[in-house]
Each structure stands twice: as structure tokens, then as C-alpha cells.
Amino acid sequence: MVSKQRVVVGLSGGVDSAVSAWLLKQQGHEVVGIFMKNWEDDDDSEYCSSRQDFLDAASVADVIGIEIEHVNFAAEYKDRVFAEFLREYQAGRTPNPDVLCNAEIKFKAFLDHAMRLGAQKIATGHYARVRAVADAAHEGGQRFELLKGLDPLKDQSYFLHRLTQSQLSRTMFPVGELPKTEVRRIAAEIGLPNAKKKDSTGICFIGERPFREFLNRYLSNTPGPIQDDRGRKLGEHVGLSFYTLGQRKGIGIGGVKDKSAPRGGGEHEPWFVARKDIERNTLYVVQGHDHPWLHSRALRADDLSWVAGHAPQPGALAAKTRYRQADAACELEAVDAGAMRLRFAEPQWAVTPGQSAVLYDGEVCLGGGVIAEALD
User: Fold this and answer.
1) Domain at 294-375: CATH architecture
2) Global pTM?
3) Which one of 13, 46, 91, 240 has the fewest beta carbons within 10 angstroms of its own beta carbon?
4) Is 330 marked active-site?
5) Which residue out of 48, 101, 330, 365 is catalytically annotated?
6) What is the mean pLDDT of residues 213-234?
């Protein structure tokens, strides 16, 4: 029997959080909705449209029969998430704002606000699960595990790997047990106005917009040479911050062919971003998806965060180095001085500094860190 609690749900205007709120209400919980506005710069109808998202969230609250509060965390977002996001890009890395956004806003600023409202728990529409496990070594005699969502196509545990025991103990993920198709079906069945609303993409809370144009407002960039793996200049980049490893489109050298086809690339093979040399302000590209420069057997990650509060023992595990990737068998070789080293059974494609390397033991997400460098 589930004990009835006061649960504050983050209503984004999307279908996942809406169905989460409805499920909790059906279970008899006292449910309150909160809409978070976290971005104010150029927040207009063309891109972000947080006003429309709030109207959708308010309509959902009306149908479900719960209160909704509009809360502005824009200052916290800019200080804790966006400033770091820009620092990483300026340093030539490719950050994952969703990971930081979850740790700093959705499960910190939002959680703190919900507790001030007298909530016992918070809930979001993430596809993940929380499991309590008896453990005498942890406070209250139990430890909380972060599990993958049951829908393998929607699992979002990768983005949640920095959550702590304290945060998980207060968090519910109602749709984590469901496939997305079932969530859509429920939304339509109960007449939610956003039942067919498409899933949001783009930068967390900022939304979809021309990315290069957006970054250009905030970052200073110096053009420099684009070279291939033999040092030949193929063109000029617009600033290293605007490129990510493995990038294929938008490089600006689409018509260039390497007729010598070195190391795995054919004459008509596409070009990919393979390396960035910050000191020389040079962007390196290679031809062909299978070029050796695009594959790494190991990596080093720092800025570590572990769900259990401590690092797992070195040994055989699985990892993701990007969100939409199958678990890759790996060996956790060592964790020391705030960094870890992973070695993979098979070479990994386009391991990208700034992205997260997240470790798994079966369905259990253990935590991870920020990729510092790819290794041979």
C-alpha cells in the first residue's frame, strides 16, 4: 500500500509530466503542479515559447484538477547552468546542459522550493526509476538506486546520473515504469490537451533555435584553419566552439574530396570533425566514419558523481559516452584523485570531452563523470 503524500510535480507543458501528475492523483496523493521558467533572454514565440508551455501546463492542471504555480528560476539557471555551459564551449569542449540542469535546477532549486511548500516528494516526467534497497551502512537503513526507465528507447537515467541519495530519496518518476506509447494512450484517453504535443528537444529550458547563431551572441571566437590528418588545409572554421567531435554537417568543406583515400576514407566518403587543437586554433577533420582518429579504446573522466555516494569497485561494467548509445562493455580501471579511467572492450566512436561518461551495472545507473580526454 502506497502511503499518501504531498507531491509537487514539475509540469513542463509536455505529455510525460502531465501523465505523471495524473497517475499520482489517481494513487491518492495530494498533487501540486509547478511550472519552472528558467530562461528569459529572447524568450519569444519563435523559439522557446515558455508562455505557450505554461498555458499547456495550466490546461493540464485544470483537466487533472490540481493547483499550479509559476516559478522563475532564471537567475539560478544562468548562474549554475548557463555560465558553466558557456565556459565549457569557450574551452573547446561540448557540454551536456541537461545533466547539469537536472543536478542544479530540477533536483536542487525546484526540490528546495517544493520542500518549502511542504512536499514530502517531488515528481518529474523522466523515464527512470528509483528503488530502495536495504543497506545498514546508509542513513535510515536503506540506500536508493537509480534505475533505467523500462522503455529502452526513452530511458533518461543518463541525464540523471549526478543525483544524490538525498535527492533520490525525495523523488518519484511515475512514467518510468511505462513505455512512451502507453503514456500517449493514457493522455488521449483522459482528454489531456497536450496528448499529441511533440517531445521537446534543444538546449534544456532554452529550446530549439539556430545553435551557431545562438552561441555567437555569448562567445568570442577566432576563425582558424581546417586541416586533414595529413596537415593539408581544407578551409577555415568559424571558431572551435561551434564544432563537436563526430560532427558531419555544417563543417563547410562538403565539396572537398581526398582522392588518395588515406586510412579508411574513400573518395566520396563524408568528412567528420575528429580533433580540436586549442593552442593552434586548428580544427582537424577526417574522411570516413571508420577513420582511426574517430575511435578510442579508453577515456579519462573527472568531476565525478556517484549515486551511492562512493565510487564502485574497479572491474567489469558498462558505460555510455553519449545519450543515444547502447551500453558498451568496459573495465573501470581506476578511480583516484577525482578522476576515473575506463577501458572499452570495443573502440568507441567520437568520445567527446565535455560529454558525460555514465556507468551501469545492468539496469542500475551508478553515476559517472565528465569526459576529460579520449585515450588509445
Assistant:
1) Beta Barrel (2.40)
2) 0.91
3) 46
4) no
5) 101
6) 90
